[in-house]
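Section: protein folds

Sequence with per-residue tokens
===
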Amino acid sequence: MSDVSLKSMDDVYPQSAGGEVRDYFQLLKPRVMSLVVFTSFVGLMLAPGTLHPFLGFVAILAIAVGAGASGALNMWYDADIDGQMQRTAARPIPRGRVSKDEALALGVVLSCFSVLVLGLATNWLAAGLLALTIGFYLFVYTMWLKRRTPQNIVIGGAAGSFPPMIGWAAVTGSVSLESVVLFLIIFLWTPPHFWALALYRCRDYSRVGVPMLPVVKGPDSTRTHILVYSFILVAFSLAPVALGFGGVAYLIMSGLLGAGFLYLAYLVFVHRVGVEADGHAKRLFLFSIFYLFALYLVLLLEAMVPGMMVPTGFEFKV
């Protein structure tokens, strides 16, 4: 574990950093926020019922702000290790652009604001799910799991899986089987996605004592886990078809994307040494982002484009 403590970081990085607007925006993890916005929007559009367009916009904005608040709180707590990892060294706190106190204040204020706005604009179930997401990401994943168990990503992945369920709840005021399926697709996608990243960033995590799976169990075990989870993910991605809210276009796309995912996971599994191994892990990581985006995009298009939703005839009655 690193010798640099959170207390000593107060001396390393100034407490009145005076960062620019873009520095505070970076605290919100805009890349992660963009995926949260998209998946929550899909959940909102797939949900039965109607929501005034303005209230829908406010709901998505509140979910995005809540996701950004989670990012700021994560950077506040992880300030001691971010500065020692190549992947995170350029973040605003390690660079001394924003102080930890400022990051904490921003995260707390935005958390409260986003939950309150979502509750007032839609309903308190959606707001409660957003509050649960923020709390889970900070207290369960960041503070508890991340530095204690190689299963951090498996369990902690729930935090990033809630947005489509929140979008669904914003419209319906309820949680349904369909919204749970949208949740589980992201939940099963998260481990192979982040383990691929951890494979080629293994030295970073090892340096700061974060027990990611490659650090604790080794790269070979991680490759096996990636392959197993990839099969489970691809198989489960057909659940929308079985439940009738994924049509022919989704069936075809999920099959093609799943084949690509499994092929890249197989390459990660068999190539275990040197730069080539890292290259395959990085390709899987990048493709996994496209995979999730494309799956949700097809579901969205089938719901929005007249005539695009063609039932497969394979759905089961529940």
The chain has 17 helices and no strands. The longest helix spans residues 274-304. The chain has a mean pLDDT of 91. The chain has two domains: 1-175, 179-318.
